[in-house]
């Protein structure tokens, strides 16, 4: 017997033994590559065909084809067996199964309140503008009538980056930035993050404000009241009261703080015979600072002396807490999904 014939016989024998032991598709694939692949054992033997004497070629060629067919059959049989086995264990795709619901994200309550606030003012014709979080001392203080060494700077617990650069402590610098570039009349709201070096149960070093301001001819405090009353009505509902208390801010004159009637006790100051915990028995909750734009601010931006306007700055966390009945400020920043997924 020719040596090549022996090799072929041997190959089929070992292929048969090996095929029998195969139990997994991955093994079957290895088998296919090793025996039938382009660089496999069979090809290796067939490569020798060319060098044979012409008289041996037809016979050995036929033998080689037989061996190839035998191994291919081993492969096909095993393939069918494995496929049938699989079908038995794992049924075909069940189209009646309900689909898997992918988890979807939601916006953070702070983002929601900020967007809603902007939408309410946008509906009144206000533009929306955003400014830098790293701000010049000039816009954060100087242009807002808070010169160096002014005692009002103490209230701000400022994070300084350099002597003239800081993390903005409020969104009010946007008043100066916008007015510097744009002539009246204008109405703008500016939402964003602000920073103060302060951290305890009721303060986080970063929080959010929405600044609003309007400049035109003959703007009065009544206009400010009307705009804020409409805002409160849209944000909290029509039954909620609004009051103004005199206050002081360097960039407004006169200045006020605005309170809404307590959401929890409906302004009564007590609940179930006890002083209300949220408003501490007063019936009122502070939500913003406001006032008529100080003439010194108009001067800093180069507006004419007879300019008139109002401004306000509201605390977004505060409003979100009141709106959703959240009692702990820290919940906003712990990213606990049990908390966050409640705001659908
Ligand atoms: N910027 C003030 C603060 O962060 C809030 C404020 C008060 C803004 C009065 C105003 C305003 O625009 O008129 O405490």
Strand-helix topology:
Layout (H helix, E strand, L loop, with lengths): L2 H19 L3 H12 L4 H6 L10 H33 L19 H15 L3 E2 L5 E3 H4 L24 E3 L5 H9 L4 E10 L10 E11 L4 H16 L5 E8 L2 E10 L8 E2 L2 E2 L8 E10 L1 H6 L7 E8 H9 L12 H4 L4
Parallel strand pairs: 1-4
Antiparallel strand pairs: 2-3, 4-5, 5-11, 6-7, 7-10, 8-9, 10-11
The structure holds 3,4-dihydroxyphenylalanine.
Q: In words, what does this structure look like?
A:
The chain is of the alpha+beta class. It folds into two domains: 3-87; 109-340, Bira Bifunctional Protein, Domain 2 (BirA Bifunctional Protein, domain 2, 2-Layer Sandwich), CATH 3.30.930. It contains eleven helices and eleven strands. The strands form three sheets. The protein has a seven-stranded mixed sheet, sandwiched between helices. Strands 2-3 form a two-stranded antiparallel ribbon. Strands 8-9 form a two-stranded antiparallel ribbon. A hairpin with a 2-residue loop joins strand 6 and strand 7. The longest helix has 33 residues, at 57-89. The mean pLDDT is 92. 3,4-dihydroxyphenylalanine (DAH) binds at residues 170, 172, 211, 249, 252, 289-291, 311-313.
